[in-house]
């Protein structure tokens, strides 16, 4: 089996950077294209029942985009350290498993590599498992990196 396009969602956490390293190693072995993405919510207050000013929203978008760009720059350095060039993309929309699955389809990815924080018990029940949500929303193979 060969992988032509590998997609890695990056959120700035150590576990997402571990996923980048693993994906870069796979990309190098298969001579694959590597794309690193960071999702930024277009409207984090969609379901809010209060009125907010445009200044608040502008500050949110500026900060969220800066954080995403910084995380992708750090991830790109990890890929380069493994000897792999990667493309980066800030994906605006909904920060969700569906957002990752849709981006994978748009980019014609044939593998998603992502980190899992490995939450258990009450934390998992309360916060859910983002990795499991991605698995449910795509037919693509998903490699879960846990450390």
TrEMBL record:
Keyword field: Cytoplasm
Gene3D superfamilies per record: HUPs
Family, per entry: Belongs to the universal stress protein A family.
Domain of life: Bacteria
Keyword Cytoplasm: yes
Subcellular localization(s) per the UniProt record: Cytoplasm
Assigned GO CC terms: cytoplasm
Stretches assigned to the UspA domain: 3-146
A family per Pfam: Usp
Native organism taxonomy: Bacteria, Pseudomonadati, Pseudomonadota, Gammaproteobacteria, Moraxellales
Protein name per the record: Universal stress protein
Location (main, coarse): cytoplasm
């Amino acid at each position: 089996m060969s992988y032509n396009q590998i997609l890695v969602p990056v959120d700035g956490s150590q576990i997402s950077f571990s996923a980048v390293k693993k994906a870069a190693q796979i990309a190098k072995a298969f001579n694959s294209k590597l794309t690193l993405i960071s999702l930024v919510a277009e409207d984090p207050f969609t379901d809010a029942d209060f009125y907010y000013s445009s200044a608040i929203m502008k500050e949110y978008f500026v900060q969220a985009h800066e954080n995403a760009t910084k995380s992708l720059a750090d991830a790109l350095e990890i890929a380069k350290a493994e000897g792999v060039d990667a493309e980066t993309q800030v994906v605006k929309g909904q920060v969700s498993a569906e957002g990752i699955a849709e981006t994978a389809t748009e980019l014609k990815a044939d593998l998603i590599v992502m980190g899992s924080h490995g939450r258990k018990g009450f934390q998992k029940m309360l916060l859910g498992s983002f990795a499991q949500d991605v698995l449910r929303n795509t037919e693509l193979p998903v490699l879960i990196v846990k450390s």
